[in-house]
């Protein structure tokens, strides 16, 4: 196989020379480290006596400068926090109303006063004072707002509900509370429920001040809006057939829509519901519906109430005062139109989505599409929410001038989101 030869002599000599060389390098490295450390120690510890006082002086001076800089930084932080707080208050509106202006009603000043919490800062919310709830846009209508708050305390409120509505339509919502008694109108002739749903009552139980019409007959002779043409005739008019008999393919029947609801339909919210016919039809099917409306050109709220239904006096610029995911169905027609401004419609749609439960239905009923751009914008917006299209119909109707108009009707189901 072969043999192994070990030459002890030569190998030992080479090993001794390598060991000696390595030991010499180690000694030199150790000497270098020790010398370097000694010089470093000397450099850090040595200080001439004549410079000692100057060194101490410079040290104190540096500490003083640092202290001044820290104080300046803390002062800037405190100032920034105050500015931020002021900006937040101005955005909220309650600090932007100048109560020192002339002709400001005393009741408005009293209502808008800040009231400190009796026990100081609240640990849960962080607030230190109670602030009046009033719309920040009211500041733009201070003269009207002051007139609204100019009344006799503990006396009768001025007959100014139309004046208050004007403020609401200008974005002054919520309005400040008042300490006066509203005019009471005897509600004689009201019928018991459910007879009240389809029974006319006397014109005398409604408030007509500020309105062009002074009776129901006048209202029924007018087209108040696209969803209310003769809508106060609940005995012989079209309202008696609405939602149970279709006049076109865009008219969905209530029973068909209710059959689409998973988990059942028990509660609903109607946006711009006219005289309350949608809520009345739902009430016949044991579904509770709240109707959001304003009294524009007609006493809608009082009429809905006279039918034994629930009116909510609210503009579409206001966040719905309702909790999340509470309704099984939301119904909207042309009341959904917010002046053609896409960003306002987007905010409104998100609020509708907020109050509608998962699996609930959004019924878009005969929404007028003035042009293809408006239809496409609404379609794209709806698709962003990921709703399931249970029914989707785009149809045309002939208006009073003989022109064709495009309407969109749809039943959409809200998805469950994580």
Automatic annotation (TrEMBL):
Regions crossing the membrane: 20-44
This protein's UniProt keywords: Glycoprotein, Membrane, Methyltransferase, Signal-anchor, Transferase, Transmembrane, Transmembrane helix
Gene Ontology annotations of biological process type: methylation
InterPro entries: Prob_Methyltransferase, Put_SAM_MeTrfase, SAM-dependent_MTases_sf
Topology of this chain in the membrane: Single-pass membrane protein; Single-pass type II membrane protein
Claim: Zinc is one of the keywords in the record: no
Subcellular location: Endomembrane system; Membrane
GO molecular function: methyltransferase activity
Main subcellular localisation: membrane
SUPFAM superfamilies: S-adenosyl-L-methionine-dependent methyltransferases
GO (cellular component) term, any one: endomembrane system
Family affiliation: Belongs to the methyltransferase superfamily.
The protein's name in its UniProt record: S-adenosyl-L-methionine-dependent methyltransferase
UniProt source species: Ilex paraguariensis (yerba mate)
Organism placement in taxonomy: Eukaryota, Viridiplantae, Streptophyta, Embryophyta, Tracheophyta
């Amino acid at each position: 196989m072969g043999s192994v030869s070990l030459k002890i002599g030569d190998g030992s000599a080479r090993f001794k020379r390598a060991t000696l060389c390595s030991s010499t390098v180690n000694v030199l490295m150790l000497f270098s480290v020790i010398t370097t450390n000694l010089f470093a120690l000397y450099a850090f510890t040595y200080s001439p006596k004549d410079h000692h006082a100057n060194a101490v002086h410079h040290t104190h001076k540096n500490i003083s400068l640092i202290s001044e800089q820290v104080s300046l930084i803390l002062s800037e932080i405190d100032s920034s926090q105050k500015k931020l707080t002021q900006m937040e208050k101005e955005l909220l509106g309650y600090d932007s109303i100048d109560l020192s202006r002339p002709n400001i009603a005393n009741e408005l000043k009293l209502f808008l006063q800040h009231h400190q919490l009796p026990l100081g800062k609240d640990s849960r919310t962080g607030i230190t004072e109670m602030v009046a709830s009033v719309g920040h846009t009211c500041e733009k209508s201070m003269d009207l707002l002051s007139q609204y708050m100019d009344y006799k305390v503990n006396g009768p409120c001025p007959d100014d509900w139309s004046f208050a509505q004007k403020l609401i339509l200008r974005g002054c919502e919520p309005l400040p509370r008042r300490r006066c008694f509203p005019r009471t109108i005897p509600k004689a002739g009201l019928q018991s429920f459910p007879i009240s749903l389809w029974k006319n009552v006397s014109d005398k139980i409604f408030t007509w001040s500020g309105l062009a019409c002074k009776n129901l007959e006048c209202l029924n002779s007018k087209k108040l809006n696209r969803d209310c043409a003769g809508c106060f005739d609940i005995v012989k008019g079209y309202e008696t057939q609405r939602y149970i008999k279709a006049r076109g393919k865009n008219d969905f029947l209530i029973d068909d829509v209710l059959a689409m609801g998973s988990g059942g339909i028990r509660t609903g919210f109607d946006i711009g519901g006219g005289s309350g016919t949608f809520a009345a039809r739902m009430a016949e099917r044991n579904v509770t519906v709240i109707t959001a409306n304003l009294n524009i050109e007609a006493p809608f709220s009082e009429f809905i109430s006279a039918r034994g239904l629930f009116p909510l006096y609210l503009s579409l610029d206001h966040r719905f005062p309702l909790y999340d995911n509470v309704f099984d169905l939301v119904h909207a027609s042309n009341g959904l139109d917010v002046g053609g401004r896409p960003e306002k419609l987007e905010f409104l749609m998100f609020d509708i989505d907020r109050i509608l439960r998962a699996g609930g239905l959004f019924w878009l009923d005969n929404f007028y599409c003035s042009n293809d751009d408006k239809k496409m914008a609404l379609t794209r917006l709806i698709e962003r929410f990921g709703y399931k299209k249970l029914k989707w119909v785009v149809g045309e109707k002939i208006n009073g001038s003989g022109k064709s108009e495009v309407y969109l009707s749809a039943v959409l189901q809200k998805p469950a989101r994580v």
